[in-house]
TrEMBL record:
Protein name: ABC transporter related protein
Domain of life: Bacteria
InterPro entries named among the record's database cross-references: AAA+_ATPase, ABC_ATPase_HisP-typ, ABC_transporter-like_ATP-bd, ABC_transporter-like_CS, MetN_ABC_transporter-like, P-loop_NTPase
SUPFAM superfamilies the record matches: P-loop containing nucleoside triphosphate hydrolases
Organism whose genome encodes this protein: Sediminispirochaeta smaragdinae (strain DSM 11293 / JCM 15392 / SEBR 4228)
Domain ABC transporter: 25-259
Molecular-function GO term, any one: ABC-type amino acid transporter activity
Transmembrane intervals: none
Family: Belongs to the ABC transporter superfamily.
Cited SMART domains: AAA
Keyword list, A-Z: ATP-binding, Nucleotide-binding, Transport
């Protein structure tokens, strides 16, 4: 049990404040190669519980590879990645446990096409979390309502719009009750009129305190929810700033150029 700090010298630290500085991801001198190609170069990145980080940068700069390393969809060759106290190494027995705690939403929604939306949501909780079907369905309905697609629960993915499919994919991740959510350009494959319905779900999730790493070029979203915005280029983190500073006076020339291009 954590003791409350109540000595005469120290102020009382409310529990919520104390937990907000819990380090949940610690990446140190991360390097990764695809054969000869040095895709991630000396990446240092710390994320505290409840923090929201937006990652942007040109195509091919290593954004997807970085977040895929965090749930071990990619292996790194040098440096360390610690997720919730677990070091990710070749002999990490806990990779499946880490993946249970780290939800991921991709650009291409990756729903199972032959399963209904409801079945998509209950599959992992039943098979991996060993929940009863009844409990899994209870949680599934909760998140289907949360992302506003409950009326489509018995349809197949192909019967839904892109925006609805992506909201279903987010709900599916949430059914595993992850501690961290990774998003890799979740709105890039959507028609423009569907982008906001997905961003709204992400904003709500952020407001509820989820720890989030989002690769996105939706700068309105970044301004609204990000604690920090990271700019990557050629496998490196070139800049990390609070949004106000990132957008108004970025320090790096490459960041300035990039921001001009996407506006
Ligand atoms: P981003 O998400 O920023 O567009 P990626 O992380 O997808 O960048 O890719 C970074 C670079 O690594 C790109 O040049 C890409 O072609 C290369 N790359 C990505 N995945 C692989 C892979 N599995 N094998 C070889 N090269 C890869
Ligand atoms: Mg990418």
């Amino acid at each position: 049990m954590k003791q409350a700090v109540m000595t005469a010298e120290a102020p009382i630290v409310p529990a919520s404040h104390a937990s907000s500085h819990e380090r949940i991801i610690a990446i140190k001198e991360l390097n990764k190669w695809f054969d000869e190609f040095h895709v991630l170069v000396d990446i240092d990145l710390n994320v505290d519980k409840g923090e929201k980080i937006v990652i942007c940068g040109p195509s091919g700069s290593g954004k997807s590879t970085l977040i895929r390393c965090i749930n071990r969809l990619e292996k790194h060759q040098r440096g360390s990645i610690n997720v919730m106290g677990h070091e990710l190494t070749d002999d990490t027995k806990d990779v499946s446990r880490i993946r249970q705690e780290v939800g991921m939403v991709f650009q291409s929604f990756n729903l199972f096409p032959h399963l209904s939306i409801l079945q998509n949501l209950t599959l992992a909780p039943i098979w991996i979390r060993k929940m009863s079907q009844r409990d899994a369905e209870k949680i599934a309905w909760k998140y289907l309502k949360r992302v506003n697609i409950a009326e489509h629960a018995h349809k197949f993915p192909s019967q839904l719009s892109g925006g609805q499919q992506q909201r279903a994919a987010i709900a599916r991740s949430l059914c595993m009750q992850p501690k961290i959510m990774l998003f890799d350009e979740p709105t890039s494959a959507l028609d423009p009129e569907m982008v906001n319905e997905v961003l709204d779900v992400m904003v709500t999730l952020a407001e509820e305190g989820m720890t989030m790493l989002c690769v996105t070029h939706e700068m309105g979203f970044a301004r609204r929810v990000a604690d920090h915005v990271i700019f990557m280029d050629e496998g490196k983190i070139v800049e990390r700033q609070v949004p106000e500073k990132f957008f108004s006076e970025p320090e790096n020339e490459r960041t300035r150029k990039f921001l001009k291009q996407i506006h």
